[in-house]
Amino acid sequence: MSAPAPKSVLNESKQIERAAMLIEMGARMQVLESETSLSYERLIRLYKEVAGRSPSKGQLPFSTDWFLTWQENIHSSLFLNIHQYLSKGASLDSAELLTRAYRLYSEQVAALELEPLLSFTRAWRLVKFFEAEMLARTACSDCGGLFVTEPYESRHYVCGLCNPPARAGKSKSAGALTLH
Ligand SMILES: [Zn+2]
C-alpha cells in the first residue's frame, strides 16, 4: 500500500480539473482567477493548452446595466432561474453549478432556435451580482415569472415579455422565450 497523496497535490489536481472545465465552457481569465486558487501564470499556460490559444484580454465592464436591458434581461432571467433551481438541489460547488446551469440554459435557448445572448462569463458575473445583492429577482405582476431586476423593484413590476419596448415589434426572437 502506498501512502495517500498529500492533500495539496489532491487539491491542486482538483483546481486544474476545475479550471479546464471552465476554460472549455468559454470562461475568461477573470472567472478562472475567481473560481480557482491557481496562479495567473499557471492559468495562462493551462488556458493555452486547453483552448489552443491565448485568453482574450480585457475585463467585462463592472455594471449591472447589461442584465437589465430587454432581451438580455430575458436571457439573464432564464439562466438565473435555472441556476437558483439547481442550487437548491444537489450539493454542487460554485463552478459545477455554474457549468451545469449554463449547459441547461444553452440547451433551452438552442431548442427555441435562438442565439445564447448570455456568455458563460456574463452568466458568472450575473451570479456574482445576485449574490452581492446588486441584482435581485422580482415576480412579474402580470405573468408571475421571476425576472432579474434591481434590488427593491416595485411590486407592480411588469416584465419585458408582458410589456416589450416598442422596438420589439419586429423581433420574433424574444417572444419565443417564456419564463413561466
Ligand atoms: Zn410578465
Description:
One of its GO terms (cellular component) is cytoplasm. With 180 residues, the protein is mostly helical. It has two domains: 7-51, no CATH class; 65-176, no CATH class. Helices cover 49% and strands 4% of the residues. A two-stranded antiparallel ribbon has the order 1-2. Helix 1 (7-24) packs across helix 3 (40-51). The longest helix has 18 residues, at 7-24. The protein is elongated. The N and C termini lie far apart (56 Å). Bound molecules: zinc ion. Zinc ion (ZN) binds next to loops.
Offer a quick outline of the entry.
With 180 residues, this protein is mostly helical. It is built from 7 helices and 2 strands; from the N terminus they run H-H-H-H-H-H-H-E-E. It has a two-stranded antiparallel sheet.
Number of helices: 7
For the record, the count of structural domains works out to 2
**Main sheet attributes: strand count, strand direction, barrel closure:** 2 strands, antiparallel
Number of strands: 2
Heteromolecules bound: zinc ion
Order of strands across the main sheet: 1-2
Separation of termini? 56 Å
Mean pLDDT: 89
What structural category characterises the helix and strand content?
A: mainly alpha
Strand content: under 5%
The rounded Rg comes to: 19 Å
Low-confidence stretches: none
Helical proportion, percent range: 40-55%
How would you sum up the global shape? Answer: elongated
The secondary-structure element order is HHHHHHHEE
